[in-house]
Amino acid sequence: MSMAGNLRKVTALGAVDGLRRVARLTRRSRRVDLSHPARSPLGSSVVNCVAYRDGVRLPESSDLVDTVRRIRKRDDGFVWLGLHEPTDVEFAGIAELFDLHPLAVEDAVEAHQRPKLEWYGDTLFAVFKTVCYAEHKELTATSEVVNTGEIMVFVGPDFVITVRHGRHGSLGPLREELESDTQQLSKGPAAVLHAIADHVVDEFVSVTDSVQADIDQVEADVFAENGARADAGRIYQLKRELLELKRAVIPLARPVQELATRPTRVLAPEIQAYFRDVSDHLLRVTEQIAAFDELLNSILQAHLAQVTVAQNEDMRKITAWAAVIAVPTMVCGVYGMNFDNMPELHWRFGYPIVIGAISIGCLVLYRGFRRNGWL
After folding, report:
1. Distance (Å, rounded) from C-alpha 181 to C-alpha 56?
2. Sheet with 159-165, side-by-side order of all strands
3. Which of 228, 244, 278, 321 could disulfide-pair with 306, CB 3.0 to 4.6 Å?
4. How far apart are CA 107 and CA 113, in angstroms?
5. pLDDT of the residue at 37
6. What is the reported pLDDT for 197?
């Protein structure tokens, strides 16, 4: 029976004694790698569980407890266990087997944590926010641009436990990539932690590049000929989605910096050098997000200024036409008073002269407003 199969039963029993009992049961069904969402069956939080020695994947054992005991006795390998949205009951046996701190276990199960880094004895607990770009044909005031999730990582001297929350951020391809690089994987659990951090930051870079395309489109629409009619809701939506991205990226700077500089038994010095490269990439993303925020503020201010200018132009046009219409209104108002002793009322040429005067007055005002750009 595979170790992943063992753990599925352990999560149901919630105790290490149950682990030893079910580890010897025979599993007839073929093992499924849940790290690939397309092949993930329902009803289990266990994604995968594999043991490695010298960077090489070991054959699957029928007893996880014995495998962990042998690895700890020889001190030359580690176990990588992957979970997806486990419950308290499902995680209880695993937490007891690997002696995980209750506070870290609570954070891993509940999720909704800020990116952070904590030490509990020889165990390191890291939280990463994952992001992905939500594809859309056209940006609207309600379009989702950035979707977020979480990856919690427990790193000990001989184990790595990853707990993933969200519908994206699968670590299956990352596991396969690491297994193809035995030299890097032979550096132990710290190499897995670096690969996860690098993977998360690379996704940040990819998402920011995609968000930039949306910002460029909004900017082009705002500064187009009819930019005053652009939808301001699209700009506000981008700012809201950018805020989600900032919540994932900005708090991660300090944990990555600690991983690159803080001495610890879990992280070898040669691995910490790799975290400095991750820190550089994260700094680039942070600066890019800050630039996006400033650019969106400028685009919004420009759009509001265009709306104000367009409103002023509309008011000038309305005022100009009101002035033109005021001429016949005034003249017709005078002659509409119906006084008996108005000489022009009985004059033969009175009507054509009044109509001509009204037309000339309206024409003069119209040409004047046109010359000044009011019409």
Report:
1. 9
2. 56-57, 46-53, 77-84, 159-165, 146-156, 123-133, 116-120
3. 228
4. 7
5. 40
6. 93
Tens of pLDDT, residue by residue over 12-55, are 444 444 444 333 332 333 333 434 443 333 336 777 888 888 88
Burial of 138 (0-12, 13-18, 19+ CB in 10 A): exposed
Separation of alpha carbons 229 and 330, rounded Å: 37
Using CA atoms, how far apart are residues 81 and 100, in angstroms rounded to an integer?
13
Alpha-carbon distances, residue 6 vs 153, 182, 301, 359 (angstroms): 21, 26, 59, 96
Contact between 78 and 71 (Cβ < 8 Å): yes
Residue 366, phi then psi, degrees to nearest 5? -60, -45
> Whose CA is closest to 53, among 74, 33, 77?
77
Residue located via tokens 């759009």: 303
Integer-rounded Cα radius of gyration of the chain: 35
Rounded to 5°, the CA angle 159-163-169 comes to 115
Does this model's pTM top 0.90? My answer is no
Residue 38: half-sphere exposure toward Cβ, Cα within 13 Å: 1
Q: Which residues share a beta bridge with 126?
A: 117, 153
Collapsing DSSP to helix, strand or coil, 157 comes out as coil
What six digits make up the tokens of 337? Answer: 């008073």
Beta strands in the chain (DSSP E): 46-53, 56-57, 77-84, 116-120, 123-133, 146-156, 159-165
Q: At residue 1, what is the residue type?
A: M
* Torsion of the alpha carbons at 190, 193, 197 and 199, rounded to the nearest 10: 110
* Residues forming a β-bridge with 133: 146
Distance CA 145, CA 242 (A): 8
Pairing of strands 159-165, 146-156: antiparallel
Check residue 231 and give its pLDDT: 76
The total of other beta-carbon atoms located within 10 Å of residue 369's CB is 18
Which stretches in the chain have pLDDT values below 50?
A: 1-2, 4, 8-43
Taking Cα atoms as reference points, which of 60, 55, 357 lies closest to residue 185? 55
pLDDT at 278: 92
Instruction: Tell me which amino acid residue 369 is.
Output: F
Give the pair of three-digit tokens for residue 79: 């176990």
